[in-house]
Sequence to fold (264 residues):
Amino acid sequence: MNEYYFLASLLPSLEIGHVPTLGFSELKTLMDTNLSRTDRQKVRDFLNVIDFENMRALWANEPFEPRGNCNPAQLEQALQDHQWPFPKPFPTFLIDFLEKYRTPQEKLNHFSLLMSQFFAAEISHETGFVRDYFAFQRELRLVLLGFRAKKWGKNVAAELQYEDGSDPIVAQILAQSDAKVYEPPFEYKELKPIFETYANSPLEMHKALYEYQFNHIIELWGNEPFTVDRILNYLARLILVERWLELDVQKGIQIVDRIEKEIT
Fold:
């Protein structure tokens, strides 16, 4: 395992609500320069979730998240050629998805299937922080779906049609289909007051969720201070800090519009 004493020592402290001393683009340059080829691939694997999220932005004609591996032109080309512009196999499940759902609206209607397959594939073969991070993101999205489906009166079985019904969190959500309110699993109990307080304020909701994720990711730190996992942990929190700072009233409106489209 490589140890990056120089790079790790350059990472300044991070705090939600404060402009980071070292921005994403600067850190990305440092990682490209200092990490081994194998560890640079781990960075690409980690950022690949943004590429998948940007597929939805592409099909919905929504703002693009610039921190992924691909810019809009590269992502469009990758979806057309079934080949990433970086050394990583193009997933068979993504090829199948693109061949089955042809129009942008069809792709949007079944986007939850694509993300479910993405997380299942990544969690099964990744290790260390990347695996733990993707597992956390998957569970967080499921719990938030439970809250949002209840708020908007959606059929949770339909919303979870592409998930494994034997999964503990999925089963827990389905078991509460007829309940008046959704009670999250114990390990996610802190999300309930966040959702109850900010359910009608998308801007504040997203700020609170970014802060919640930031604090949770710190707990995934690990015991080795100079490894790529520590640097990836920092990268994940840096993205949250920058996204928090980028939020404004107009973006808050766009966010709630997108959420409503996602579960409609």
User: Anything to note?
Assistant: The chain has 14 helices and no strands. The mean pLDDT is 92. Residues 54-126 form one domain. The radius of gyration is 19 Å.
